[in-house]
Amino acid sequence: MRCSVPIAAVFAAGAFALPARVQPRADSDGHSHDTTPWDEGATKDFWIHDSCNATETTQLRKGLADAVTLADHAKQHILRFGNSSEHYRKYFGDAPSAEAIGNYERVVSGDRGNALFRCDNPDGNCNQPEWGGHWRGSNATNETVICPLSYSTRRPLEQLCALGYTVAGSETNTYFGSDLLHRLYHMPAFGEDHVEHFAEGYAGALELAETNSSYATHDSDILQYFALDVYAYDIAVPGVGCAGTVDETASSMETPTSTASTTSTSAQSPSSFVTEPPTPVTAGAANGVTSAPQDCHTHAGGDVHCV
Ligand SMILES: *[C@@H]1O[C@H](CO)[C@@H](O)[C@H](O)[C@H]1NC(C)=O
Ligand SMILES: *[C@@H]1O[C@H](CO)[C@@H](O)[C@H](O)[C@H]1NC(C)=O
Ligand SMILES: *[C@@H]1O[C@H](CO)[C@@H](O)[C@H](O)[C@H]1NC(C)=O
Ligand SMILES: *[C@@H]1O[C@H](CO)[C@@H](O)[C@H](O)[C@H]1NC(C)=O
Ligand SMILES: *[C@@H]1O[C@H](CO)[C@@H](O)[C@H](O)[C@H]1NC(C)=O
Ligand SMILES: [Zn+2]
Question: Which single residue of 4, 90, 254, 271 has CA 20 to 30 Å from 290?
Answer without folding.
Answer: 90
